[in-house]
Structure prediction request, 86 residues.
Amino acid sequence: MRLYVGNLSKQVTEPQLNELAAPYGALLSAAVVTERDTGESKGFGFLEFATAAEGNAAIAGLNGRDVNGQALTVTEARPRKQRGQY
Prediction:
């Protein structure tokens, strides 16, 4: 199950995101989305869990949780939209 994690502080790193999510189950991946040119966090990321039950537990446990003074927004990720060819 893939989750969207929004309202991340710019200081949150992928290892910290991984650490936040680890108690909720088998984490397959944790990614903080960054600016291509500067490498600075865009303020959101994604988590991927092995099962829907673990993902739902992470949503329940992390949504609204205060991390570095900001309340996280954690929801099931929507599928990526296909971009047109140029």
